[in-house]
Amino acid sequence: MKRPVLRLLFPALCGSLGLALHAQTPASDSDVPELALLMGDLQRLTHKLALSADAGNAELAAFYLHESQEQLRKIQREAPEYENLPIAVLIDRMAHPAYAPLQEAIAAKDQERMVAGLDLIVQSCNACHVATQHGFIRITRGTEVNPFNQSFAP
Length: 154
Ligand code: HEC
Prior knowledge:
The protein is an all-alpha fold. Helix content is 70%, strand content 0%.
């Protein structure tokens, strides 16, 4: 085998070895980043929900409220337990009920109540982080600036 060929093959071999090792990672290890990723998606949806509520955009807030609830159900399906914590049960008890006041405020198209409802949801995020030994993850309203290339105006 000529050297240039080896030089080309070597990284490719290393790559497939890496893939093989990755595939052998036990299921419990690959579960570890999963809840964080799912939470990251929930965070983005919650942030957009906050910006919509803050702008008094009932139609857009209704969309992100629905998406957030779907994401919570996805978390319940995909990570019902995490490090021996009953995530799905806690979401049923702490997260889902927190969405009702915002839902009512959206139906009434009442911006002030929408923001109050949003605050209740953010509180439920943080209450569950405390309940699951992740109290250091503190969610805020985050409506001072719009970091997205998207308008939240009604
Ligand atoms: C069932 C309780 C529970 C609820 C409800 C909950 N979280 Fe979490 N959250 C967790 C746990 C546990 C972790 C740590 C996951 C890990 O260690 O991988 C976490 C991690 C996170 C993270 C860190 C991951 C990242 O991408 O930075 C963010 C952000 C987050 N949650 C946002 C939220 C938001 C926003 C809400 C509310 C809409 C929420 N969480 C509701 C339990 C919860």
